[in-house]
Input
Amino acid sequence: MKKLITKKTKGVLPIENEHLVGKILVLDAKYLSTKYKFAEHQLWKATGGFGCDPNLQGRAIFCTALADGEEYRWDRDKFIGMISEETAKNYISEKDN
Output
């Protein structure tokens, strides 16, 4: 099984007072079912929702999965951090190896 991304993984940045639209977010692996517990399924691109704005009370973040293009809604607190697009490409290409 491929390594999962954790808060301690090189390149993972904390989500603090960031506006998240367009950012690559790392979902905590504990929210994935067993068959999806791979790093590439932890990566989601934020597309909208009140949870993307740190100044609003909302928690919902609408995202697109980088692994398969699935669109989904997650709460802001389900993410362990964010990574650059360049780092995300490394994880997406791993699944083909």
Q: What stands out?
A: The longest strand covers residues 43-48. The mean pLDDT is 92.
